[in-house]
Amino acid sequence: MKLFSFLFIAYLFLFSAGNVAADYSLNVTDIAGRKIQFYEPVKHVICSGPGCLRLLVYLQAEDMVAGVDDIEVRRKKYDARPYALANPQLKEKPVFGGFRGQDNPERILSLHPPPQVIFKTYPNMGHDGVELQKKTGIPVVILTDGDLGRNRTDLYQSLRIMGEVVGRQARAEEVISFFEAHGKELEKRTAGISEEDRPRVFVGGVAFKGAQGYQSTEPEYPPFSLINAANVAGNKGGIGKEIQHTAVAKEKILQWDPDFLFVDLSSLQLGEQAGGMYELRTDRAYKSLTAVARGEVYGLLPYNWYSKNYGSILANAYYIGTLLYLEQFENVDPKQKADEIYEFLVGAPVFGHMKRFFNDLAFTRISME
């Protein structure tokens, strides 16, 4: 009798567990408006395209990764991707294709465990998402990495979609609240500063699909925008904030003559005899700039490295604030703040790691000698 009772209970448990799997159904609508249905909980995924894996790490779901694109396994002298530095185990994952969405359907189908979903950013880059789904039979969910400015709702929508698929809805809301809170804090710290009391600033050497020289900049450079800095390359510089990236004429920089100059340290990749810092140090025209003469030149963490590293955007904003607005940011230790941000987003305080990558020049005054 006891044996019968035990077997009956075991049967009910198995039947119930089977029904849970059979009854599971999740419907999501991706950024492209495509409706996708899942019939079992998602445990294994891959992320295709710039910034895609970063979002998954933000959601603390990196343990679900079944494979990575080839940029994740490269070992280079420079690296400014906090999510990768905090999760070195990702380098040991099998490769399913090339970076920037160059997916290989055969490799994807050979992964073990097999992915139940392919998240994809920048769907027009590399392998077409719809075609990829047809070739693999694996649902492809299109996302976007948005930004922390006018397109922040796109970022938040992607986090929520991804969170729903991988069962990290609560974490998605935590990340969104984190970005909102820091945005409001930075706005509050700088809102009362009059326009005439805002030093004029310029950042050069901003990465764009690779390292660039000092004339490479952004009219709407996110760290400047978050603290309401007077970016000379913005609207009043005649470029227009609708342009995300541009190379300005050297003569323009000389004409603007900013109070503070910043260098995106991704420019170091161009070598010792090139790049933004080299140009500032060796070009006679740049030596005439007021900021160069006064030593007001500072190094910033690259943020545009396989798309946007949001933690670095926030960390740069706080650091720049401590230079431009001493009173408003007097209680901020920018290096400590950076690690607080990274620890929340990617799970580890990696500021020191990145600083060493970039010759210890991040968040420091750069000598022009």
Automatic annotation (TrEMBL):
<dbReference type="Pfam" id="PF01497">
    <property type="entry name" value="Peripla_BP_2"/>
</dbReference>
<dbReference type="InterPro" id="IPR050902">
    <property type="entry name" value="ABC_Transporter_SBP"/>
</dbReference>
<keyword id="KW-0732">Signal</keyword>
<dbReference type="InterPro" id="IPR002491">
    <property type="entry name" value="ABC_transptr_periplasmic_BD"/>
</dbReference>
<feature type="domain" description="Fe/B12 periplasmic-binding">
    <location>
        <begin position="44"/>
        <end position="328"/>
    </location>
</feature>
<protein>
    <submittedName>
        <fullName>Iron ABC transporter substrate-binding protein</fullName>
    </submittedName>
</protein>
<feature type="signal peptide">
    <location>
        <begin position="1"/>
        <end position="21"/>
    </location>
</feature>
